Description:
The chain is α/β, with parallel strands linked by helices. It folds into 3 domains: 34-360, ABC transporter type 1, transmembrane domain (ABC transporter transmembrane region fold, Up-down Bundle); 388-492 and 582-667, 3-Layer(aba) Sandwich (Rossmann fold); 503-580, no CATH class. It contains 24 helices and 10 strands. It has helices at 15-45, 50-82, 86-136, 139-143, 145-158, 165-173, 175-192, 195-224, 227-241, 243-252, 255-310, 315-329, 339-364, 400-405, 456-463, 483-491, 507-511, 522-531, 535-539, 561-577, 594-607, 620-623, 643-649, 652-666, and strands at residues 415-424, 433-441, 445-449, 471-476, 479-480, 493-496, 582-586, 612-616, 628-633, 636-641. It has a 6-stranded mixed beta sheet with strand order 6-7-8-3-9-10, sandwiched between helices. A 4-stranded antiparallel beta sheet has the order 2-1-4-5, with helices on one face. The chain is elongated, with a radius of gyration of 36 Å. It starts with 14 loop residues before the first helix and ends with a helix. The relative contact order is 0.08. Residues 143, 426, 432, 450, 452-458 line the site of adenosine-5'-triphosphate. Residues 417-659 form the ABC transporter domain. It is found in: Cell membrane. InterPro entries: AAA+_ATPase, ABC1_TM_sf, ABC_transporter-like_ATP-bd, ABC_transporter-like_CS, P-loop_NTPase, Type_1_exporter. Residues 1-23, 390-410 are annotated as: Disordered.
Amino acid sequence: MSTVCTGPAGTDREPGRRTRTAGASAARRWCAARTTAARQLLFLTRQAHPADIAAALVLHLVAGLVPIAFIVTSSRAIPAVRSDDVSAVALWLGLTGLAVVVLQIVSPLQMMVAHRVQAEVDAYCSRRLFADALDVAALRDLEAPAVADGLAEATQSLNNESQTPGGAVDGALALMPRYVQLAGAVVIIAVQGSGIAAVLALVIALTNRLGQTRAYSLWVAAYQAMAGERRRMAYLRDMVSHPKVSRDIRVLRIRSWLQGRYSADSDAYLGTLWRARRRISGRSFVVYAVVTLVAGTGLVTLAIVDPVLAGTLSLGSLSMLLQAVMLCTAFGVIFPESDSKLQFGRTTWQAITGVEAITGAVRASGTGRMGRVPQGVGSPGAGAVLVRPRQPPPADVSHAGAAGRSGGAAADTGDLITVSGLHYRYDDSRPVLRGIDLRLRQGTSTAVIGSNGAGKSTLVKLLTGLYLPDEGRIRVGGEPLTPSAVAGWQRSTAVLFQDFVRYRLTVRENVAMQSVAHLDDSAGIREVLERVGLGTRIGELARGIDTPLSRLVTDGTDLSGGQWQRLALARVLFAVHHGARFLVLDEPTAQLDARGEAEFYEDFLALTRGVTSLVISHRFSSVRRAHTIASLEHGRITERGTHEELVARGGTYERLFRTQSTRYTDE
Ligand SMILES: Nc1ncnc2c1ncn2[C@@H]1O[C@H](COP(=O)(O)OP(=O)(O)OP(=O)(O)O)[C@@H](O)[C@H]1O
């Protein structure tokens, strides 16, 4: 009776064929992976200067040939010594010495050139990563955990010399002397021993090497897969060195809890890592060590015993053969100067190209209108003045109350920004903004109010091009704010976020951070510092505006929370002074006292007259001076108008305004 096959055709019926097919596809995958790796390395190598690459190749070639020359010359000296041939001894020992000297000279040169090549390739990679991550990618994409991980991994690796793409190029070039030595050893075996022994030696060396590098790449993959665990541990470690957190650790008395947490994480991490290491390296070590021992012994036997028995092998040839065989059997190891750099450097490059894949998608969504800067946006006009000229009010926001209190009317030169049907959601959560329509007229101030989580900061991020809308449209100067127009638009905006950055740099740099082209404008910097009430404080400092703002820096100082906020305000005012056309303040006075807040708004409106501004605030005393107030609730604008109109309407604005003013009066 014949066997009935029940499995699908090509599987149960033909096990032999299936194995062959699986083997063939594994080989194809292996070849494809090697080809990709070679292409990547070739591409990266081309980023270094050709003269440096040529120098590296020549030096590596010499470094590969010299040990072979050493084997030949030192082995040739043995029969010369035995035959008392003084001139031959002198010649061969002289050449052996020369080989040693050449190696001594070549080694430091190799290192020097390798550093140059690595630095050139890494500089290229850093430029590419930062250009894409900081210029093109939408913030939302960069905030995705996988992308944030890739970016963190890539930037950290670029700081670690042994893990950079330049290191991978250096590692690949450093393989050259190893392979030159292998080729030399194989030739020696062929000439002094036999052709078969030479072929065997080559096959064993390459197989062994392949096995070891494969095991190593599996180990690197296992190591990379634990990047999250490493980051968690690094976070706990870094907490201790962070001044604010170390203050908390003392106050909360959590040192031993933190230590325990770190030890537990570290034990779990090391345990997993060592299990992976044993699994991957143990097996390959046993298999390949046995192969090397057994096959290596057979090879030596083949290469030496036969000619020794025949009496045709001289002492010099025996020495050469033994050293050549040693070289071949020692080829099956991980080369510290190459393999680690190659594996980690390529992973870093893949992380960089991973970030680029996202930015590429952003570019692709740019609707082909690259490089178009919207009208009214871009470089500031020459001769920007600190206090802008008063301009007539816009038709639809001209209200006696608002204009009066804001110290003047606003320009009516049309809409700077129009927002229509704007929708936005983070990930798969419910929409944060749902159909926002808004017009920001040129030269007017608009305030957005709303409760916590209403979507105010999200709206700011969309208006400043940090996020792209899911639906709807933002127009700036009549032109759509496409990804390609974002960079130009951002150059004309000055934004103060709630969580503004306190740069560990000088006062000057902190103030000029939004207009770095004007870092030398010391008078302008001092003037805005005066305006925000920091003139006296900064004037007291020995180095004035060139004082670093951190106690962790020599001669540095620090500011109070409110003073930092004033400094951040100075930053945006300085940007306005140098031509920013759209000013956004997200909770600008949250850390100021009531008097400071009142003074700030008086000054702010005077200083920014003629500039289109958007203020986000919870404090009604701040927003009432704006030309237009929009109330945001649950992602929609529910009320809009001037302060007087909204109070007269008796809606949510009026209710909240009364509540706040009663509280202030009570206090
Ligand atoms: N990066 C983010 N990922 C996911 N959800 C977010 C993110 N940022 C904000 N959200 C959510 O979006 C909603 C709106 O947040 P947003 O910061 O815009 O509010 P807001 O009005 O500025 O609040 P607040 O007055 O408290 O600053 C909130 O529910 C918030 O939890």
